[in-house]
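dumping this here so i dont lose it
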């Protein structure tokens, strides 16, 4: 079972626990890639992460940039800096663990406080988001720990075969 599938299953079975799991602040050191599988990088805990060398981002970080800016930036602002409508994900990701991120994006979230209601819609049925959750996560993680600057990454690694295969499988192609 993939970690993503486990996290989504866990969050579906125990939705009350997920918001109470507090992640310690992420850092470049914690986010450092220690393993790689077909162009996808993982930190010491096995969580998807980015790899940026000499200004070149891995494929998944680049894909995350593209996917974020096609579906998420409308509310959360360019490069995850936030807006008057939704929070700055480049900030909130510093203290959000991977399962919580997956849960919020898949199931949505509603916050009510101070006479204001904020609603994050569920994207679990949107293949343009769901099929690229890891990509979006690693892009925002790179932004959160100041590893990736604002704007389109100037250089990217080639798309690995694993990404092509997963995309075709997930999108039904």
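and the seq i came up w/
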């Amino acid at each position: 079972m993939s970690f993503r599938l486990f996290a989504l299953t866990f969050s579906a079975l125990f939705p009350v626990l997920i918001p109470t799991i507090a992640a310690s602040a992420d850092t470049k050191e914690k986010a450092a890639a220690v393993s790689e599988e077909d162009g996808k990088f993982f930190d010491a805990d096995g969580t998807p992460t980015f790899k940026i060398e000499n200004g070149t981002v891995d494929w998944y970080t680049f894909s995350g940039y593209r996917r974020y800016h096609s579906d998420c930036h409308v509310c959360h602002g360019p490069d995850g800096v936030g807006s008057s409508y939704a929070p700055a994900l480049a900030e909130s990701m510093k203290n959000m663990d991977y399962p919580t991120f997956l849960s919020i994006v898949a199931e949505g979230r509603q916050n009510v406080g101070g006479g204001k209601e904020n609603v994050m819609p569920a994207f679990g049925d949107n293949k343009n988001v769901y099929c690229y959750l890891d990509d979006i996560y690693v892009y925002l993680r790179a932004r959160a720990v100041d590893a990736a600057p604002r704007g389109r990454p100037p250089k990217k690694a080639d798309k690995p075969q694993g990404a092509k295969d997963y995309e075709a499988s997930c999108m039904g192609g």
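Residues 59-76 form the longest helix (18 residues).
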